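Exercise 7. Given the encoded structure of a 337-residue chain, write a plausible sequence.
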């Protein structure tokens, strides 16, 4: 039995991972440590909450005593660190919590993992640490880190710390860097759920700048399968890029979503650009493909339709979210754009 501390499992990617993996593997015992910030939602985990190989602990990865207690109590030998403040716009509104959770929190996990001689520490990172691309080229694992937002700089700091623990202490670490995810259970502050839900409500769709920024999209299940493969077979000290080679301009995604929801393009509203807005992300994932045999399984057209249908069929899930604290955030961010 592998005793795993998984952090941030009540968020978008972590909850998709848990829902999938606990049905697949009976040799994983997983403790999910999550602070339940605005982005954490235990409703995401209803299907597995009574699984005998699963425990939930509400708490902060920055809490040294609590993290130590969990390692001891559950004989933790593996860590998968999903927990983070994850939204670029929020990091622009206020950066401190990003450095607190993403940098200090990762340090607490690494230090504790070192004391308990973990067998693997997987850091879930992002392609945003590489910065922004021009019209050509792809991010490889050798692209220098050049983060531009408070969010991406905090993730890059964590990545460098993970690497330092490998070089200095020989800690068995591995890092994944994935492109933009979409799928069920994504918090509606991110592009795809935000635009889908606004369209359903006949609300304006706020496109930043000229709408020509490019993101490289991957279905969350493909990302999570890659994470698991790296967790099982990734070489210690290595970084693996994850992406599905599906570059899209923001405006094209927005138009596609409008069509799927049956609304017309008059809902599009170009608004003031995001400060420091990265122009283009695009991932070269040939390393994980050739070394570990991973490849994306989901076609974009099918997976985006699944995602939109999920939001159509799960109004309760997001209506509760957008009627709460989120209203203040939304009005604050979009009011003066
Ligand atoms: P999310 O914001 O949906 O979820 C984050 C989770 O972490 C939440 O459940 C939250 O409660 C928890 N959390 C936050 N601070 C915490 C703390 N101090 N202690 C314990 N738990 C805390 O994020 P996500 O989209 O699921 O992203 C998960 C990870 O994947 C992040 O590390 C992110 O940087 C990375 N990532 C995300 C994407 C993407 O497109 N969403 C792409 C690449 C990498
Ligand atoms: P987002 O989902 O916030 O992901 P990230 O910034 O981490 O890539 O945004 C994806 C793209 O969509 C990004 O170029 C910013 C743009 N965007 C808008 O144009 N309008 C919006 O309201 C949001 C949230 C994002």
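Solution.
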């Amino acid at each position: 039995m592998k005793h795993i501390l998984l952090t941030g499992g009540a968020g978008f990617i972590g909850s998709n991972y848990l829902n999938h993996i606990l049905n697949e593997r009976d040799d994983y015992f997983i403790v999910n440590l999550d602070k339940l910030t605005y982005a954490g939602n235990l409703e995401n985990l209803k299907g597995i909450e009574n699984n005998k190989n699963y425990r939930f602990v509400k708490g902060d990865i920055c809490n040294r005593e609590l993290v130590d207690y969990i390692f001891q109590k559950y004989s933790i030998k593996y860590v998968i660190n999903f927990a983070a403040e994850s939204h670029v716009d929020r990091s622009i509104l206020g950066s401190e919590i990003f450095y607190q959770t993403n940098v200090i929190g990762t340090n607490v996990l690494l230090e504790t993992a070192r004391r308990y001689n973990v067998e693997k520490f997987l850091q879930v990172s992002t392609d945003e640490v590489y910065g922004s691309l021009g019209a050509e080229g792809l991010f490889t694992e050798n692209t220098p880190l050049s983060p531009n937002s408070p969010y991406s700089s905090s993730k890059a700091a964590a990545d460098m710390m993970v690497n330092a623990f490998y070089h200095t202490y020989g800690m068995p670490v591995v890092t994944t860097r994935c492109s933009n995810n979409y799928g069920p259970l994504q918090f509606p502050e991110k592009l795809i759920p935000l635009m889908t839900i606004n369209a359903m409500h006949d609300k304006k769709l706020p496109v930043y700048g000229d709408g020509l920024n490019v993101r490289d999209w991957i279905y969350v299940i493909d990302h999570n399968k890659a994470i698991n493969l790296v967790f099982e077979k990734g070489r210690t000290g290595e970084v693996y890029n994850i992406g599905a080679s599906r570059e899209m301009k923001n405006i094209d995604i927005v138009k596609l979503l409008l069509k799927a929801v049956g609304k017309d393009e008059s809902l599009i509203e170009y608004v003031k650009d995001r400060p420091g807005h990265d122009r283009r992300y695009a991932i070269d994932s040939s390393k994980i493909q050739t070394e570990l045999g991973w490849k994306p399984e989901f076609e974009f057209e099918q997976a985006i339709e699944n995602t939109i249908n999920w939001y159509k069929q799960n109004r309760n899930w997001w209506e509760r979210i957008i009627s709460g604290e989120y209203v203040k955030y939304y009005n604050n961010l979009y009011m003066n754009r």
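Remark. The chain has twelve helices and twelve strands. Students should compare their own answers with the one above.
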